[in-house]
Amino acid sequence: MKQHMILIWTGRISGVLVTAFFAAFFMGKGMPDILSGTGTDLLHFLPYTLLTFAGFLLSWYSPLWGGRLLLAGALLLAGYFLYHQEIAIGLIFAIPSLLIGLCFLAAANKELI
């Protein structure tokens, strides 16, 4: 198998796992807090996670643009948590999206391999 296909499928499989994990977290912890009115902090960083989710969906059809959107979303998410001095949580949320975005970018630009 060619190296760029390995990177694309690594990004796709990892993206599905990461998306499923964060979706389960949001449905189990975040949604009840939002409905009860105590989860307003979650609503502030939700657009950043939606940006990375959109990047993952786009990467199935266009790895280059999806990877770029994943990187942008990961950097914005990390910046949000760094601004609020939550470095550990920022790394937990941003590093998976950053690595998946790098997989898609490396696969899209075959000359980087």
Structural commentary:
The protein starts with a helix and ends in a 5-residue tail after the last helix. Helix content is 86%, strand content 0%. It has one domain. The protein is mainly α.
Summarize the structure.
With 113 residues, the chain is mostly helical. It is 86% helix and 0% strand. It has helices at residues 3-36, 40-59, 63-83, 87-108.
- Give the number of domains: 1
Give the % helix: over 70%
| Mean of all residue-level pLDDT scores | 82
How are helices and strands ordered from N to C?
Answer: HHHH
Compute the gyration radius: what is it?
A: 15 Å
Overall spatial form: elongated
Structure classification: mainly alpha
Q: Biggest sheet, open or closed, and with what strands and sense? A: none
Number of helices: 4
What's the β-strand tally? 0
> Distance between termini?
14 Å
Beta fraction of the residues?
under 5%
**Low-confidence stretches at least 5 residues in length (pLDDT < 50)?**
none
Provide tags for this entry.
113 residues; mainly alpha; 4 helices; 0% strand; elongated
Helix-strand layout with pairing:
Layout (H helix, E strand, L loop, with lengths): L2 H34 L3 H20 L3 H21 L3 H22 L5
Helix pairs in contact: 1-2, 1-4, 2-3, 2-4, 3-4
